[in-house]
Design goal:
250 residues, alpha/beta, TIM Barrel, 9 helices, 8 strands, 36% helix, globular, GP_PDE_dom, Glycerophosphodiester phosphodiesterase, PLC-like_Pdiesterase_TIM-brl
Length: 250
């Protein structure tokens, strides 16, 4: 049945891309977490969504202009709620150290998009996953499809997902041309029929960011391999309700 992946952790209830959000996702029973990585000034992998720290911390400036140590000194929780004054921007190493003690899947989104190049980010992410022996539990996704093509050249086996918001014609064929193995579409980018066909073609579909219960129900009924949501606890409740209704219907 459809798996639940917590978008930036439980980002609807906890500060996004923080250890608090990731731990909450595990606590409520999510199957995996999604997170974003940028490269710092000193070549570390920082777990943060935006190219700047402005929105989610008490700092100002681009992630690429900070060292990891400098990022750690920022408050990444209080802008979400005063209940989280000690949350920091994690380094990917910190998240993977915790993750290897769980059974969770990790979806790592590479943020080398638009004007950000981040040379070597694909190699660095792979090195970290190999160091923790987590490649079999990892999904690499990006809107930068050139970067995903580079990732496939580096590793022939890891699960690679194209992120897209457009209505692509036969997206499973486009994914195949890049060496990608799964699809992460916007909720409105694929019809139920396209989802069904993709899954039949062995291209798992994991739409983002699904926070509305109506969309959750539709995508679970459509047979998506997973949904990516800010509210994993809500999605799990919907999935359990549908499972119960199906049982009663028999």
């Amino acid at each position: 049945m459809t798996k639940i992946i917590a978008h930036r952790g439980s980002a609807g209830t906890h500060p996004e891309n923080t250890m608090a959000a990731f731990r909450e996702a595990e606590h409520v029973g999510a199957d995996g977490i999604e997170l974003d990585v940028h490269l710092t000034k000193d070549g570390k992998l920082a777990v943060i969504h935006d190219e700047t720290v402005n929105r989610t911390t008490n700092g100002k400036g681009h992630v690429k202009d900070f060292t990891m140590s400098e990022l750690h000194r920022l408050d990444a929780g209080s802008s979400f709620s005063t209940e989280f004054p000690y949350e920091k921007i994690p380094e990917l190493t910190e998240v993977l150290t915790w993750l290897e003690q769980t059974g969770l899947t990790v979806n790592i989104e590479l943020k080398n998009v638009f004007y950000l190049d981040y040379p070597g980010i694909e190699e660095k992410v792979l090195e970290e996953l190999e160091r923790f022996d987590l490649k079999s539990r990892a999904i690499i996704s990006s809107f930068n499809h050139l970067g995903l093509y580079r990732m496939r050249k580096l590793d022939p086996m890891i699960d690679i997902a194209i992120l897209f918001s457009e209505k692509l014609y036969e997206p499973w064929k486009y994914a195949e041309s890049l060496g990608a193995t799964s699809l992460h579409p916007h909720v409105y980018s694929m019809t139920d029929e396209m989802i069904h066909t993709s899954e039949q073609q062995n291209y798992p579909v994991r739409p983002f960011t699904i926070n509305d219960e109506m969309h959750m129900e539709r995508l679970i009924h459509a047979g998506c391999s997973a949904i990516i949501t800010d509210y994993p606890e809500r999605a799990i409740a919907v999935k359990e309700r549908l499972r119960s209704e199906d049982s009663w219907g028999r």
